[in-house]
């Protein structure tokens, strides 16, 4: 690895840390919708794979560090993964400790990163001898994953029932394109369908705004006032091992370890489950909330790192909700990457280690310090000047462009259809992970059903 390449990796990590520090703090932005299209664009631009991976690792660490800030300051989650922390962050805010909430969550993220990186690399290399067996059964494993995640969804029975109809919709559109000659028969339209799922809630909301009756019934709001409590600035570099108590460090590390080895499970489900489990016996509300949010934030970072690295290094197929979601373009981004030719096949173990360490260290070094020291100033700026609608609008435009590139004008209509159904399913409480697993399992599942 030459010096020029290392400099490119550092620059990519710095750029990702800056971008996703801002995006993470913007309220209501979803991790998959904001990270996946950018990674896909970088891959399609021909950026070196190791540089793309470095950018991704820095992005997820920075995003997971910052999406907890609006939770602590205003009780508004920056992203889906921060939603389980709202109740505990509001408790600390009620007791006048939003600064404690920010410091505990950010420090938990640091612990999660420290634990997840070595555990992920070790577990990934341990699974390599089993990779051929796992890949041989990849299609049924995707279906089993969809079933498992459905059972962990908010409305499990609706999620289970939706699996086959959603698979039929996906394969029906593909066969329509093949029949009309929109795409060659040996080409599976995938990327744009994937992006249609990620942007589904936005598409559904935009369609609802075209309904006059529904639009007229919407509640109108004026300018929203958010009061930020002033706190003392920290001059020295904050030490997460001094901010967290010994018990909080222990539960954060344990949660990170469990989250890393259960990388195939739903990150949101595991975050809620373990966060509540580790704090359930604590009576003092401040200590209980502190224990819960530090453990939860550690777990979110760990699940994102492990959910990307383990499938990428050991398997080469996206066999986790994180890999299928934000990290999907690292596995499958035609015509550059596919399941037989992606980062798994291109990069060596040393490349994965270097990309992970550079991305994680740069993001931690920049974002952790900034979050702990300047979180209120950044939050005030983002709340005032960076509406999340503008960010989502940018990604929505990118989705339309990539949909046209994938299958022409007809595919834009197909992506709208996928988005409408996906947005409706998401509103019913069906997790993104279920829908992504179905997207991968659809060809195998429909062929099996048709063969009966």
TrEMBL record:
<feature type="transmembrane region" description="Helical">
    <location>
        <begin position="106"/>
        <end position="128"/>
    </location>
</feature>
<feature type="transmembrane region" description="Helical">
    <location>
        <begin position="378"/>
        <end position="402"/>
    </location>
</feature>
<feature type="domain" description="DUF112">
    <location>
        <begin position="10"/>
        <end position="431"/>
    </location>
</feature>
<feature type="transmembrane region" description="Helical">
    <location>
        <begin position="189"/>
        <end position="210"/>
    </location>
</feature>
<feature type="transmembrane region" description="Helical">
    <location>
        <begin position="408"/>
        <end position="425"/>
    </location>
</feature>
<protein>
    <recommendedName>
        <fullName>DUF112 domain-containing protein</fullName>
    </recommendedName>
</protein>
<feature type="transmembrane region" description="Helical">
    <location>
        <begin position="38"/>
        <end position="62"/>
    </location>
</feature>
<feature type="transmembrane region" description="Helical">
    <location>
        <begin position="157"/>
        <end position="177"/>
    </location>
</feature>
<keyword id="KW-0472">Membrane</keyword>
<feature type="transmembrane region" description="Helical">
    <location>
        <begin position="298"/>
        <end position="317"/>
    </location>
</feature>
<keyword id="KW-1133">Transmembrane helix</keyword>
<feature type="transmembrane region" description="Helical">
    <location>
        <begin position="352"/>
        <end position="371"/>
    </location>
</feature>
<feature type="transmembrane region" description="Helical">
    <location>
        <begin position="6"/>
        <end position="26"/>
    </location>
</feature>
<feature type="transmembrane region" description="Helical">
    <location>
        <begin position="68"/>
        <end position="86"/>
    </location>
</feature>
<dbReference type="Pfam" id="PF01970">
    <property type="entry name" value="TctA"/>
</dbReference>
<keyword id="KW-0812">Transmembrane</keyword>
<dbReference type="InterPro" id="IPR002823">
    <property type="entry name" value="DUF112_TM"/>
</dbReference>
